[in-house]
Every structure is written in C-alpha cells, then in structure tokens.
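*Target chain*
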Amino acid sequence: MLFLAARAILHPVDNVLAIEPHGAGWEGVGAEEWDNVGLIGVQGAAAGLRSTSTEQNLVSVSGARNVVLRNLSLEGGRAGLSAGYGASFEANNLDMSGATVGVLAGDAVGYFSDCRVHDNTNSGFNLHTGASFSLHSTEVYNNVTGVSAAEGAAVEVGQNSTIRDSTQWGMFLEGGAIVHVNGATVTQNPIGLFLGWGSNATVRYSRVAGNADAGIAVMIGSVLALQEGAVVEDNGTGISVAGNASAVVNAGSVVRANRGDGVSLVDTATLWIHWAGLIQDNGGWGVRCDPQPDVPGIHGPLDPSLVGPNTLGRISCPGITAP
C-alpha cells in the first residue's frame, strides 16, 4: 500500500503508476506538462484515491497530453479530477464521488467511457472555456447538476450514457455552450436539459423522460434541435421555449405523453416544425403559445396534422387554433 501526503508528479520515465488493488489515501496526484503518462489501477476499480481536503483537487492533468486514467476510484477533493492548459486525457472505468465537483475543466480535451460520476456536492461535470468532452457508457447521477457547461464549452453525451437523479438540472448550459446528446438518456431530474444565454443543443436517438418540470427548457436566445430518434416523454412539460429562443422539431423526433403541454412558447419564442416531427398524446396542448408580453411564432409546414391529438387540443396560438 502506498500513501502520499503531498502531491505526486508523474514523469514520463515512469510512464504508468500502478496502484495496488486495495488502494491508498492520496492527498493529490498530478500530471503536469508531461505527455504519455498513466495512472492505472492494476486490478480493476478497487484502487482508491481519496482526499479529505475541499481546497485541493484530487487528480490534476495540467498541460499534459495523452494521459490515461483507468480502473480507479476517486473520492473527495475540491474536484475529483481537474484538467486544463491544453491537457488531453482518456478516462476509463473511473468511479468519482464525494468531491465538490466531480470533473472541473477548461482548455482541455477529455474522453470518458464506462465511468460513474456521482454524489458530488455540486456538479458532476463543470466545463468552461476551451473544454471539449465526450461521454460514452457513462453514468452521471445524484449530483446537484449532472453536467454544467459555459463559455463555449462543448460536450457530447453519447451512446449508453445516463444523466439522472440530479437535485436541480440534469444538464445546465449557458454562455454559448454546445451539447450533442446522441444515444443517451436524461431522466429523473427536476429539469432534464436547460439551455440559456445563447447555448445550443442537438438531441438525437436519445430519451429525455421522467423529469419533474420540463424535459427541455430553451431560454434567452438559445437553440434546440430535435433530430431523428429523439423522444421527449413523461415530463411535466415536454419542451419549454422562452426569451427569443428557438426549438426545431425535425423528422423522426417525438414529443409525447408529457403531463402538461408538449411544447410551450412564451415571449418571442419560435418553434419550427419540419415534416413528420410528431407532437401527440400530451396532457395539455400539443403546442401552446402565451401571447404576453410578445407573440411567439410557429414556422415550417403549418399543417395541424403534424401535431397529433392531445388532451386539450393540437395547437393554441394566436392565429392558429386546432382542437
């Protein structure tokens, strides 16, 4: 068993630092400016790194490229993993919990597979300027916010990933952040996906389902595109759009069986319905516009048949009412 009370720097001559299967308590591990290094648990995820400090990051990848993190349990710290200054890394089979933020990153590229990021006191992921991250077969759960992205950060929530059981937002985007949800599930959050202040989201072959309030909230100049295979169902409201924001419902996507309206438009919000996008079986209106203080709009082929039957009716908007 190995115990370090101070930070350990991984040098390229070491290449891989192996942790014994029962692990040890670590106060901090860093890969700083050295490329092609690795921190790998030799016998699965039982290798443990932990910290009781809320001031230091547990594992830091700073300016180092092609770093490999694998088969580790990371517990505690200000951030379980921080990355920046042009760093790039691959994380596989990590279990990350008990930090203020699970992953804190800017100016870094990260690829996560088969990871679990959970029970952190703030965000699972907090990404900002220059961060570009991809999550595959990764579970993010029991955080205040699952994924928070700002300042142009980009994140792909990919195949077989799940963001669930957050106490505020599944995903929260602001400041021009970009998210691609492709083959993932966002469920059991108060709001599944929040887009604000010029952010953009594409949802494809994914389910946004079972969120208490809105499945997706699109606000303040943001843009949402539902692509083929996107399903928004069993939320309070399916999609809520407000503040000069836009939502696009493309062919092969479905907004259905939400407890309230399928799509709610407020305050110059815009909905584009493209051919064969389907909005149906919602507990309120399929599409409802609140005309105050400004009039929202619906664009595209304005055939009410594109909005299926809903409990209160298909469309309730100024100039377009279809029961």
About this structure: The chain has one domain: 8-322. Residues 221 and 245 are 4 Å apart (CA to CA).
